[in-house]
Amino acid sequence: MLRLGIAFSGGLPPADIVECVRLAETLGYESAWVAEGHGGDQFAILGACAVATRRILLGTSISSVFVRSATTIGMATATVDQLSNGRFILGLGSSHRVQVEPEHGIPFVQPTARLRDTIAIVRALLRDGVVSHHGEVVTIERFDLWFPPRKPDIPIYVAALFPRMLEIAGELAQGALLTWPTPSTIARAIEHVAIGARRAGRDATAVDVASLIPCAVAETVAAARDAMRPAVGLYAGFFPRYNRLLAEAGFGDAVRAIKDAFDRGGREAAAKIVPDELIDAVALAGTPDTCRDRLAAYRRAGLALPIVSPRVSGADGKKMAMAAIRACAP
User: Which residues contact 201 (CB under 8 A, 6 or more apart)?
Assistant: First the structure.
Protein backbone atom coordinates (compact mmCIF):
# COMPACT_ATOMS: atom_id res chain seq x y z
CA MET A 1 0.00 0.00 0.00
CA LEU A 2 1.25 3.50 -0.81
CA ARG A 3 2.48 5.54 2.14
CA LEU A 4 0.18 8.41 3.05
CA GLY A 5 -0.35 10.66 6.06
CA ILE A 6 -3.06 13.03 7.19
CA ALA A 7 -2.51 16.28 9.10
CA PHE A 8 -4.66 18.76 11.00
CA SER A 9 -3.71 22.41 11.47
CA GLY A 10 -6.83 24.21 12.64
CA GLY A 11 -10.52 24.56 11.99
CA LEU A 12 -11.63 21.51 13.99
CA PRO A 13 -12.25 21.04 17.71
CA PRO A 14 -10.12 18.34 19.35
CA ALA A 15 -12.86 15.68 19.50
CA ASP A 16 -13.46 16.01 15.75
CA ILE A 17 -9.75 15.53 15.06
CA VAL A 18 -9.84 12.28 17.03
CA GLU A 19 -12.81 11.11 14.99
CA CYS A 20 -11.03 12.00 11.74
CA VAL A 21 -7.89 10.13 12.81
CA ARG A 22 -9.97 7.05 13.56
CA LEU A 23 -11.43 7.26 10.06
CA ALA A 24 -7.98 7.68 8.53
CA GLU A 25 -6.78 4.55 10.32
CA THR A 26 -9.67 2.49 8.94
CA LEU A 27 -8.82 3.72 5.42
CA GLY A 28 -5.16 2.72 5.59
CA TYR A 29 -3.35 5.99 6.28
CA GLU A 30 0.12 5.40 7.70
CA SER A 31 0.27 8.40 10.01
CA ALA A 32 -1.70 11.29 11.49
CA TRP A 33 -0.10 14.62 12.43
CA VAL A 34 -1.37 17.50 14.55
CA ALA A 35 -0.16 21.10 14.50
CA GLU A 36 -0.77 23.50 17.34
CA GLY A 37 -0.93 27.26 16.85
CA HIS A 38 -4.36 28.17 18.24
CA GLY A 39 -6.10 24.87 17.47
CA GLY A 40 -5.73 23.01 20.76
CA ASP A 41 -2.90 21.36 22.68
CA GLN A 42 -1.33 18.95 20.21
CA PHE A 43 0.01 16.46 22.76
CA ALA A 44 -3.37 16.24 24.51
CA ILE A 45 -5.11 15.67 21.17
CA LEU A 46 -2.56 13.03 20.16
CA GLY A 47 -2.94 11.33 23.54
CA ALA A 48 -6.67 11.05 22.86
CA CYS A 49 -5.91 9.72 19.36
CA ALA A 50 -3.52 7.20 20.88
CA VAL A 51 -6.16 5.55 23.04
CA ALA A 52 -8.76 5.70 20.23
CA THR A 53 -6.62 3.94 17.61
CA ARG A 54 -4.41 0.87 17.31
CA ARG A 55 -2.13 1.07 14.26
CA ILE A 56 -1.77 4.57 12.82
CA LEU A 57 1.43 6.47 13.65
CA LEU A 58 0.93 9.78 15.47
CA GLY A 59 3.11 12.87 15.11
CA THR A 60 3.44 16.58 15.84
CA SER A 61 3.66 18.85 12.81
CA ILE A 62 5.34 20.62 14.42
CA SER A 63 6.08 21.24 18.06
CA SER A 64 7.84 24.58 18.48
CA VAL A 65 11.13 24.57 20.36
CA PHE A 66 10.28 28.05 21.68
CA VAL A 67 6.85 27.70 23.24
CA ARG A 68 7.61 24.59 25.32
CA SER A 69 10.77 23.85 27.24
CA ALA A 70 12.96 21.09 25.85
CA THR A 71 12.33 18.88 28.87
CA THR A 72 8.57 19.42 28.64
CA ILE A 73 8.71 18.35 24.99
CA GLY A 74 10.67 15.25 26.01
CA MET A 75 8.21 14.37 28.77
CA ALA A 76 5.22 14.87 26.46
CA THR A 77 6.91 12.75 23.81
CA ALA A 78 7.46 9.89 26.25
CA THR A 79 3.85 10.20 27.44
CA VAL A 80 2.19 9.95 24.03
CA ASP A 81 4.59 7.22 22.94
CA GLN A 82 3.61 5.14 25.95
CA LEU A 83 -0.12 5.77 25.46
CA SER A 84 0.18 4.77 21.79
CA ASN A 85 2.31 1.67 22.44
CA GLY A 86 5.26 3.08 20.53
CA ARG A 87 3.55 4.87 17.61
CA PHE A 88 4.72 8.42 18.24
CA ILE A 89 6.84 10.65 15.97
CA LEU A 90 8.16 13.97 17.25
CA GLY A 91 8.08 16.72 14.64
CA LEU A 92 10.14 19.71 15.78
CA GLY A 93 10.68 23.18 14.37
CA SER A 94 11.33 26.76 15.30
CA SER A 95 7.93 28.20 14.32
CA HIS A 96 8.05 31.87 13.25
CA ARG A 97 9.12 35.13 14.82
CA VAL A 98 5.73 36.64 13.89
CA GLN A 99 4.08 34.03 16.13
CA VAL A 100 6.60 33.34 18.88
CA GLU A 101 7.21 36.93 20.01
CA PRO A 102 3.78 38.63 19.80
CA GLU A 103 1.70 35.57 20.71
CA HIS A 104 3.87 33.99 23.41
CA GLY A 105 6.05 36.84 24.66
CA ILE A 106 9.24 34.84 24.06
CA PRO A 107 12.27 36.30 22.24
CA PHE A 108 12.88 34.54 18.94
CA VAL A 109 16.66 34.24 19.11
CA GLN A 110 19.09 31.61 17.80
CA PRO A 111 16.41 29.25 16.49
CA THR A 112 18.83 26.76 14.94
CA ALA A 113 20.90 26.47 18.09
CA ARG A 114 17.75 26.03 20.17
CA LEU A 115 16.58 23.28 17.83
CA ARG A 116 19.90 21.45 18.13
CA ASP A 117 19.86 21.72 21.93
CA THR A 118 16.25 20.54 22.09
CA ILE A 119 16.97 17.46 19.97
CA ALA A 120 19.94 16.55 22.17
CA ILE A 121 17.95 17.04 25.38
CA VAL A 122 14.94 15.04 24.22
CA ARG A 123 17.10 12.16 23.00
CA ALA A 124 19.09 12.01 26.24
CA LEU A 125 15.96 12.11 28.37
CA LEU A 126 14.29 9.31 26.43
CA ARG A 127 17.46 7.22 26.39
CA ASP A 128 18.47 7.63 30.02
CA GLY A 129 15.36 8.83 31.85
CA VAL A 130 17.36 11.77 33.12
CA VAL A 131 19.19 14.63 31.44
CA SER A 132 21.74 17.32 32.20
CA HIS A 133 22.74 19.55 29.31
CA HIS A 134 24.97 22.56 28.75
CA GLY A 135 24.30 23.71 25.22
CA GLU A 136 24.68 26.84 23.18
CA VAL A 137 21.36 28.35 24.31
CA VAL A 138 19.75 25.82 26.67
CA THR A 139 21.21 24.65 29.97
CA ILE A 140 19.44 21.97 32.02
CA GLU A 141 20.92 21.29 35.43
CA ARG A 142 18.96 18.07 35.87
CA PHE A 143 15.56 16.75 34.85
CA ASP A 144 14.35 13.20 35.38
CA LEU A 145 11.26 11.33 34.25
CA TRP A 146 9.24 9.63 36.96
CA PHE A 147 8.20 6.85 34.63
CA PRO A 148 10.28 4.75 32.23
CA PRO A 149 10.02 5.70 28.54
CA ARG A 150 8.54 2.92 26.45
CA LYS A 151 11.49 3.02 24.06
CA PRO A 152 14.75 4.96 24.08
CA ASP A 153 14.80 6.18 20.49
CA ILE A 154 11.67 7.90 19.16
CA PRO A 155 11.83 9.23 15.58
CA ILE A 156 12.39 12.97 15.27
CA TYR A 157 11.42 14.85 12.12
CA VAL A 158 12.65 18.41 11.56
CA ALA A 159 10.54 21.04 9.80
CA ALA A 160 12.59 22.41 6.92
CA LEU A 161 11.93 24.73 3.99
CA PHE A 162 15.32 26.03 2.83
CA PRO A 163 18.73 24.45 2.20
CA ARG A 164 20.32 25.13 5.59
CA MET A 165 17.53 23.53 7.61
CA LEU A 166 17.08 20.71 5.12
CA GLU A 167 20.73 19.85 5.60
CA ILE A 168 20.36 20.00 9.38
CA ALA A 169 17.44 17.57 9.08
CA GLY A 170 19.69 15.25 7.08
CA GLU A 171 22.40 15.59 9.68
CA LEU A 172 20.36 15.12 12.86
CA ALA A 173 16.91 13.69 12.25
CA GLN A 174 15.08 10.59 11.09
CA GLY A 175 12.99 12.72 8.76
CA ALA A 176 12.55 16.11 7.12
CA LEU A 177 9.08 17.64 7.20
CA LEU A 178 8.27 20.07 4.38
CA THR A 179 5.14 22.10 3.69
CA TRP A 180 3.61 24.06 0.79
CA PRO A 181 5.83 22.27 -1.74
CA THR A 182 5.56 22.16 -5.49
CA PRO A 183 6.52 18.89 -7.15
CA SER A 184 9.52 20.67 -8.66
CA THR A 185 10.87 21.68 -5.22
CA ILE A 186 10.86 18.10 -3.93
CA ALA A 187 14.06 17.13 -5.77
CA ARG A 188 15.90 20.15 -4.33
CA ALA A 189 14.78 19.20 -0.84
CA ILE A 190 15.91 15.60 -1.23
CA GLU A 191 19.29 16.80 -2.50
CA HIS A 192 19.93 19.04 0.49
CA VAL A 193 18.77 16.40 2.98
CA ALA A 194 21.28 14.03 1.39
CA ILE A 195 24.06 16.65 1.66
CA GLY A 196 23.44 16.98 5.38
CA ALA A 197 23.28 13.24 5.89
CA ARG A 198 26.56 12.62 4.06
CA ARG A 199 28.24 15.42 6.00
CA ALA A 200 27.31 13.62 9.21
CA GLY A 201 28.46 10.25 7.87
CA ARG A 202 24.90 8.97 7.54
CA ASP A 203 23.18 7.07 4.77
CA ALA A 204 20.93 9.57 3.03
CA THR A 205 18.30 6.92 2.41
CA ALA A 206 17.86 6.60 6.18
CA VAL A 207 16.27 10.07 6.32
CA ASP A 208 12.58 10.12 5.44
CA VAL A 209 11.38 13.05 3.35
CA ALA A 210 7.76 13.92 4.12
CA SER A 211 5.62 16.92 3.30
CA LEU A 212 2.35 18.41 4.40
CA ILE A 213 0.29 19.22 1.29
CA PRO A 214 -2.72 21.51 1.81
CA CYS A 215 -5.93 19.96 0.51
CA ALA A 216 -9.45 21.05 -0.37
CA VAL A 217 -11.90 18.66 -2.03
CA ALA A 218 -15.12 19.80 -3.70
CA GLU A 219 -17.47 18.83 -6.52
CA THR A 220 -15.67 21.22 -8.87
CA VAL A 221 -12.09 22.41 -9.16
CA ALA A 222 -13.28 26.02 -8.94
CA ALA A 223 -15.06 25.43 -5.63
CA ALA A 224 -12.03 23.66 -4.19
CA ARG A 225 -9.73 26.50 -5.25
CA ASP A 226 -12.06 28.99 -3.56
CA ALA A 227 -11.92 26.94 -0.36
CA MET A 228 -8.10 26.94 -0.50
CA ARG A 229 -7.67 30.63 -1.34
CA PRO A 230 -7.88 31.97 2.27
CA ALA A 231 -5.14 29.60 3.47
CA VAL A 232 -2.77 30.56 0.66
CA GLY A 233 -3.52 34.23 1.28
CA LEU A 234 -2.75 33.91 4.98
CA TYR A 235 0.49 31.99 4.57
CA ALA A 236 1.81 34.20 1.76
CA GLY A 237 0.59 37.40 3.37
CA PHE A 238 1.46 36.89 7.03
CA PHE A 239 4.48 34.57 7.23
CA PRO A 240 7.70 35.96 5.73
CA ARG A 241 9.23 32.51 5.44
CA TYR A 242 6.33 31.11 3.41
CA ASN A 243 6.22 34.25 1.29
CA ARG A 244 9.86 33.61 0.40
CA LEU A 245 9.22 29.92 -0.22
CA LEU A 246 6.40 30.60 -2.66
CA ALA A 247 8.37 33.37 -4.36
CA GLU A 248 11.29 30.99 -4.90
CA ALA A 249 8.85 28.46 -6.38
CA GLY A 250 8.23 30.92 -9.21
CA PHE A 251 5.40 33.09 -7.86
CA GLY A 252 7.29 36.21 -6.84
CA ASP A 253 4.88 38.70 -8.40
CA ALA A 254 1.84 36.92 -6.99
CA VAL A 255 3.11 36.72 -3.42
CA ARG A 256 4.27 40.34 -3.43
CA ALA A 257 0.75 41.35 -4.42
CA ILE A 258 -0.76 39.06 -1.76
CA LYS A 259 1.51 40.56 0.92
CA ASP A 260 0.52 44.10 -0.11
CA ALA A 261 -3.16 43.16 0.00
CA PHE A 262 -2.75 41.48 3.39
CA ASP A 263 -1.00 44.51 4.85
CA ARG A 264 -3.74 46.83 3.57
CA GLY A 265 -6.86 44.76 4.16
CA GLY A 266 -6.07 41.58 6.08
CA ARG A 267 -6.98 38.00 5.26
CA GLU A 268 -10.03 38.66 3.13
CA ALA A 269 -8.21 41.10 0.89
CA ALA A 270 -5.29 38.71 0.46
CA ALA A 271 -7.52 35.75 -0.35
CA LYS A 272 -9.30 37.60 -3.14
CA ILE A 273 -6.17 37.97 -5.24
CA VAL A 274 -4.61 34.50 -4.85
CA PRO A 275 -4.24 33.22 -8.43
CA ASP A 276 -5.46 29.78 -9.48
CA GLU A 277 -2.00 28.91 -10.77
CA LEU A 278 -0.45 29.31 -7.32
CA ILE A 279 -3.11 27.13 -5.70
CA ASP A 280 -2.64 24.43 -8.31
CA ALA A 281 1.13 24.47 -7.79
CA VAL A 282 1.22 24.02 -4.01
CA ALA A 283 -1.99 22.23 -3.02
CA LEU A 284 -4.41 19.42 -3.67
CA ALA A 285 -7.45 21.44 -4.71
CA GLY A 286 -10.18 19.92 -6.81
CA THR A 287 -12.35 16.87 -7.21
CA PRO A 288 -11.28 13.56 -5.70
CA ASP A 289 -9.79 12.52 -9.05
CA THR A 290 -7.88 15.80 -9.34
CA CYS A 291 -6.44 15.42 -5.85
CA ARG A 292 -5.35 11.83 -6.44
CA ASP A 293 -3.65 12.87 -9.68
CA ARG A 294 -1.78 15.60 -7.83
CA LEU A 295 -0.68 13.16 -5.14
CA ALA A 296 0.71 10.92 -7.88
CA ALA A 297 2.70 13.88 -9.24
CA TYR A 298 4.31 14.44 -5.85
CA ARG A 299 5.21 10.75 -5.62
CA ARG A 300 6.76 10.85 -9.10
CA ALA A 301 8.83 13.82 -7.98
CA GLY A 302 10.35 11.63 -5.26
CA LEU A 303 8.31 12.52 -2.18
CA ALA A 304 8.45 9.50 0.13
CA LEU A 305 5.58 10.46 2.43
CA PRO A 306 2.86 12.84 1.22
CA ILE A 307 0.76 14.12 4.12
CA VAL A 308 -2.69 15.40 3.14
CA SER A 309 -3.54 18.52 5.15
CA PRO A 310 -7.24 19.43 4.82
CA ARG A 311 -7.96 23.16 5.04
CA VAL A 312 -11.34 23.46 6.72
CA SER A 313 -13.44 26.07 8.44
CA GLY A 314 -16.93 26.74 9.76
CA ALA A 315 -19.71 24.44 10.85
CA ASP A 316 -18.95 21.97 8.05
CA GLY A 317 -15.29 21.60 9.01
CA LYS A 318 -15.49 17.96 10.02
CA LYS A 319 -17.46 17.09 6.91
CA MET A 320 -14.84 18.85 4.75
CA ALA A 321 -11.97 17.06 6.48
CA MET A 322 -13.59 13.66 6.16
CA ALA A 323 -14.30 14.29 2.48
CA ALA A 324 -10.60 14.96 1.94
CA ILE A 325 -9.61 11.88 3.95
CA ARG A 326 -11.91 9.66 1.88
CA ALA A 327 -10.96 11.26 -1.44
CA CYS A 328 -7.22 10.81 -0.98
CA ALA A 329 -7.23 7.46 0.85
CA PRO A 330 -4.48 5.03 -0.21
Answer: none
pLDDT tens for 169-185 read 999 999 999 999 999 99
3-class secondary-structure state, position 308 = strand
Helix (H) or strand (E) holding 32, with range, is: strand 31-34
DSSP 301: T
5-215+287-328 architecture in CATH?
Answer: Alpha-Beta Barrel (3.20)
Indicate the pairing of strand 88-93 with strand 156-159. parallel
Q: What kind and span of H or E run contains 224?
A: helix 221-238
CB-CB contact of 66 with 104 (8 Å): yes
Domain locations along the chain: 5-215+287-328, 219-283
Q: pLDDT tens across 235-283, in order?
A: 999 999 999 999 999 999 999 999 999 999 999 999 999 999 999 999 9
